[in-house]
Amino acid sequence: MEKLVINGGNSLFGSIDISGAKNAAVAILPAAIMAGSGKCVIDNIPDIADINCLERIVEGLGCLVERNGNSITIDSTSISSLNACTEDVRRMRASYYLIGALLGRFKEARVDLPGGCPIGVRPIDQHIKGFEALGAEVKIEHGAVHVKAEKLKGANIFFDVVSVGATINVMLAAALAEGVTVLENPAREPHIVDVANFLNSMGANIKGAGTDTIRVTGVEELTGCNYSVIPDQIEAGTFMIATAACGGEVKINNVIPKHLESISAKLIEMGVDIVEEDDYVLVKSEKNLKGVNIKTAPYPGFPTDVQQPMSALLSISKGRSIINESVWESRLKHVDELKKMGANIKVEGRTAIIDGVNKLTGAIVKATDLRAGAAMVIAGLISEGATEIYSIEHIDRGYPHIENKFKALGADIHRENE
Ligand code: EPZ
């Protein structure tokens, strides 16, 4: 087991490159196994534990996988199993995309129920509703989802809640269904558009991804393709927030500024100077920022995935800030850790009331989940003295080499064995 050790207080200067988007890549890898012929060569893959986990999972199904730096080649012509029932599958959330992918291509799959960050109840009823509407029989037995269909037929599906996972999963199955599927009230996150673009590169016919109606016209076969994953909106947001909190000037390269608008708007409201160019943002901060209120919401709203990093910044911002976490009911567990560092935060249900303090002080804390871990890193960077962060395997699931990227900007941070 490893821990991160941070000596806080340094401002951040320089430039960093944002990696490929985790939540796009973890859907694109399962989507790649839908190719009945040819290989998928996928670039800009982030070097994170969730990708390693998915690699092992698809290899277990019989795919041939080759990793070369940030590029992955997947040959799925030799799939020999429709059963994904392993510890890796149970450990991560995105393994549920194997259900839609295998159902689409083989009309059958057995996949263990997924795991993922402990941020609330994570039902899959909307995924199931979509698969059933396409004509599949869905059973949950012995902790696994078993889906089977004679054939899949396009349908009109209205999602009761806006769900990233359900939108992608049903889109995967519908890509190889007969006829037209219309998805109403889908999620509109940038990674939804990226997965649709990837499927279209494989020969699918998907229109409207990123809007409130997605239209999927089923095709008979998908084939291999070359593709590059979009930049990670959440990693970029995390570095923007860290720069705002630490003070300094950082050029954040390889981003799509449009995807960052809700984050940029909040930081500007707090007093941060942000310049947006074609593929980078320049963030300048002299600290002494003012608190703001935040309500998380599906895209294009303020992303729940940067709520926790943002709470670290708000804990040292002037006045009172209120966070309302509307997506996940238990995504404020990190607050107890921030309090160990001197933050003044009161949690009532899904709301955090933050009264800004002048400084945080280093402490021994843990990453209770992935983005909580990023919040702890930011808190450590702005604290007086030393911070040790434990359970950093959560951070490694979604941030590639976080300590190296911050070190390159002048932070005093390193990894040690516990
Ligand atoms: C994805 O999770 C992301 N994970 C999460 O990122 C992210 O927080 C979330 O979308 C929201 O943006 C991956 O992409 C792997 P949802 P997902 O289905 O798909 C309810 C991170 O930090 N819901 O959009 O599991 C659900 O309870 C991670 O990178 C149902 O009620 O989220 C939640 O309240 C953590 N029924 C809301 O919808 C369903 O069938 C949004 O969930 C599905 C979801």
TrEMBL record:
Main location: cytoplasm
Gene3D superfamilies tied to this protein: Enolpyruvate transferase domain
Function, as annotated: Cell wall formation. Adds enolpyruvyl to UDP-N-acetylglucosamine.
UniProt-listed GO biological process terms: cell division; cell wall organization; peptidoglycan biosynthetic process; regulation of cell shape; UDP-N-acetylgalactosamine biosynthetic process
PTM sites of type 2-(S-cysteinyl)pyruvic acid O-phosphothioketal: 117
EC number: 2.5.1.7
Domain Enolpyruvate transferase: 7-405
GO MF annotation, one: UDP-N-acetylglucosamine 1-carboxyvinyltransferase activity
Official protein name in the record: UDP-N-acetylglucosamine 1-carboxyvinyltransferase
Signal sequence annotation: none
Annotated compartments: Cytoplasm
Family the entry assigns: Belongs to the EPSP synthase family. MurA subfamily.
Record's GO cellular component terms: cytoplasm
Alphabetical keyword list: Cell cycle, Cell division, Cell shape, Cell wall biogenesis/degradation, Cytoplasm, Peptidoglycan synthesis, Pyruvate, Transferase
Pfam family, one: EPSP_synthase
InterPro entries from the UniProt entry: Enolpyruvate_Tfrase_dom, Enolpyruvate_Tfrase_sf, MurA_subfamily, RNA3'P_cycl/enolpyr_Trfase_a/b, UDP_GlcNAc_COvinyl_MurA
Enzyme class: transferase
Biochemical pathway: Cell wall biogenesis; peptidoglycan biosynthesis
Record flagged with keyword Membrane: no
Annotated binding of phosphoenolpyruvate, by residue: 22-23
Catalytic reaction equation(s): phosphoenolpyruvate + UDP-N-acetyl-alpha-D-glucosamine = UDP-N-acetyl-3-O-(1-carboxyvinyl)-alpha-D-glucosamine + phosphate
Catalytic residues (UniProt): 117
Residues noted as binding UDP-N-acetyl-alpha-D-glucosamine in the record, renumbered to the chain: 93, 122-126, 305, 327
HAMAP family according to UniProt: MurA
